[in-house]
Amino acid sequence: MNQPSGKNSPIIKGRIVAHLGKALIVEDDEGQTALCKKRTQLEQPAVGDYVEWIRTEAGAGRVEKVLERRSLLSRPAKKGNVRPVAANLDQIVAILAVKPNIDPLLLDQYLIVCEFQDIAPLIVLNKTDLLDEESRKTIDELVLIYKKLGYEVVEVSAVEKTGLNELRQHLQNKTSILVGQSGVGKSTITNALLPDLAIQTKTLSTASGLGKHTTTLSTLYKLPEGGDIIDSPGVNIFGLAHITEQNLAYGFREIRHFADQCKYSNCMHLKEPKCAVKDNVENGEISKQRYLRYLKLRDKLSY
Ligand SMILES: Nc1nc2c(ncn2[C@@H]2O[C@H](COP(=O)(O)OP(=O)(O)O)[C@@H](O)[C@H]2O)c(=O)[nH]1
Ligand SMILES: [Mg+2]
Ligand SMILES: [Zn+2]
């Protein structure tokens, strides 16, 4: 006879390792996965969430409760709503690549989210094998701006498998999400880091019973060295929409650094007199490109 589902089923602790849209894949402490629905009134769980769930039948269950999160990344959704992308993150890994192209404005948006959500940032330059002399020079200049601000930059080629050990060290014992525009190599990097990815993927799609063609919104993989990475398609931007103008300024480390030297305590570093931020753009202490992107993002958010 089947176990009855409901009140008498024991509560199991687990973690959401994949979000399939309508269903979730939960992994328990022993590494067993189950395809779960969520209790109707429950808020939307995200990959990385620690949950309590009950088994309703072999390999299937229902998420009853989402445990407290230490961080949550959201993205804008329809009707001004936000949807959770990933929970309990320690690190956001922003991937850049010359192909399709380097997008510093997108990078700055990721970094702003890191700053104001207090999640550690890491910048990864992928596809170094494609760099020629000219693009190398342009990239070095860009990278230098971020290194001066205290950001760490790791250079890799997922195809030639260079730089991966350094990257592994940065990922150890943390939950990280890989973000970046489509085509920068998030999935290829994930593959390169996980020798048994094929197996993990198979387990997940078998557990789901939905086959391997189901679009997973994002998936959490366990690294052999300890730590987890979340590969997530389509996270090209997350909820900057709910970032206030103060948080936007806070998200730029160099603006934050000089802001308390501005004459006005509420200075937004636009046209105000005696603005230490603008002065330091003038004298080259603050990168003009970064300041212009600050202005551009303000426009985009239209305060
Ligand atoms: N030359 C080169 N190509 C790469 C590298 N990493 C990924 N690619 C290629 O870039 C394309 C997009 O990679 P993918 O991992 O799907 O990107 P994603 O959309 O960010 O997940 C694929 O054709 C990869 O083979 C790299 O280090 N060097
Ligand atoms: Mg991908
Ligand atoms: Zn100012």
Characterization of the model:
A hairpin with a 4-residue loop joins β1 and β2 (24-28). The protein has 303 residues and is α/β, with parallel strands linked by helices. The chain has helices spanning 104-117, 133-148, 164-171, 186-193, 197-208, 245-250, 253-259, 276-282, 288-301, and strands at 12-19, 24-28, 33-38, 50-57, 60-66, 72-76, 82-87, 91-97, 120-126, 153-155, 175-179, 218-222, 228-231. It folds into three domains: 12-66, OB fold (Dihydrolipoamide Acetyltransferase, E2P) (Beta Barrel); 72-231, Rossmann fold (3-Layer(aba) Sandwich), CATH 3.40.50; 244-301, Ribonucleotide Reductase Protein R1, domain 1. The chain has a five-stranded mixed beta barrel. It starts with 11 loop residues before the first strand and ends with a helix. Bound molecules: guanosine-5'-diphosphate, magnesium ion and zinc ion (ZN). Zinc ion (ZN) is lined by residues 259, 262, 267, 269, 272, 275-277. Magnesium ion is lined by residues 186-187, 233.
Question: What characteristics describe this protein?
Answer:
9 helices; two-stranded antiparallel sheet; OB fold (Dihydrolipoamide Acetyltransferase, E2P); alpha/beta; single chain; 303 residues; binds magnesium ion; 5-stranded mixed beta barrel; Rossmann fold; binds guanosine-5'-diphosphate; binds zinc ion; Ribonucleotide Reductase Protein R1, domain 1
